[in-house]
Amino acid sequence: MLFYDSPNPAPNPRRVRIFAAEKGIDLPSKEVSIPQREQKAPGYLAKNPRGQTPILELDDGTVIAESVAIMRYLEALHPEPALFGKAPLEIAQVEMWNRRVEMILMIPLSQVWVHTHAFTAALPGRNQEWGEANRPRVEAAFRFFDESFADRDFLAGPDYSVADILLQTTADFAEFVGCGMPADCESLRAWHGSVSARPSAQA
Ligand SMILES: N[C@@H](CCC(=O)N[C@@H](CS)C(=O)NCC(=O)O)C(=O)O
Fold first, then answer.
1. Which of 3, 45, 52, 98 to mutate to test ligand 1, by most ligand atoms within 8 A of the CB atom?
2. Are 117 and 109 contacting, i.e. CB atoms less than 8 angstroms apart?
3. Closest by alpha carbon to 156, among 203, 101, 113?
4. Where in the chain is the domain with CATH 1.20.1050.10?
5. Pocket residues for ligand 1 (CB within 6 Å)?
6. What is the CATH number of domain 2-77?
7. Architecture of domain 88-202
8. Cα–Cα distance between 137 and 108 in angstroms, integer?
9. Does residue 7 have a cis bond before it (omega within 30 degrees)?
10. What is the reported pTM?
């Protein structure tokens, strides 16, 4: 298999790198440069018509796109340590928090990124006002996650899971975009310090 990867600050490929590191999976990879628009080249679009990274290409040419789908595939191949939960309730809670990270935090963050950041200035249809309107939504989302750490060490429960990977990579990308975790979100920041200290955070 071949993992089509993009370096930091791209948060979605990093999810998979951290996930693989946590499981001890060695993923052969090929870099796709987003600044050079390699994700929109015809050869890459033939693999992923969405023109985005990451993708995982299997030895028979099958392509899996979407970082969560790639991680689910890797979890099925390498069940231990379980990062999507094991018991029915754990599985549901990991899914619940994954969806909350993607819908409550990633959506407004992506709007700030696409509509206000200097690196995306060439994209068509930019609307600075709309981008700025999403900044407080990012902050509100961080405050929501901050409160969620009041009674546990990890996002979806007592154990580290893929939900932590989604929040960690999104929080680090938010910092890059210029709307990172508020200074007074102490529980969130303590959690971030603990996941950042894991060796997988270097991925
Ligand atoms: N939902 C997708 C999102 C993929 C995505 O947005 N990838 C970004 C890199 S983090 C990308 O390729 N951006 C370049 C573009 O959209 O042209 C996933 O989870 O894999």
1. 52
2. no
3. 101
4. 88-202
5. 6, 10-12, 34, 39, 51-54, 66-68
6. 3.40.30.10
7. Up-down Bundle (1.20)
8. 6
9. no
10. 0.97
**Which residues, including other chains, have CB under 8 Å from residue 18's CB and lie 6 or more apart?**
165, 168, 169, 200, 201, 203
Read off the pLDDT of residues 98-156 as tens digits, 9 standing for 90 and up. Answer: 999 999 999 999 999 999 999 999 999 999 999 999 999 999 999 999 999 989 999 99
> Which pLDDT belongs to residue 29?
98
The token pair that represents 74 in the structure block = 């890797």
Between the CA of 183 and the centroid of ligand 1 the distance, in Å, is 28
**Three-class DSSP category at 133:** helix
- Could you give the CA distance from residue 11 to residue 169 in angstroms, rounded to a whole number? 5
Secondary structure of residue 130 in the 3-state scheme:
helix
Q: What sign does the dihedral 166-17-7-181 (CA atoms) show?
A: positive
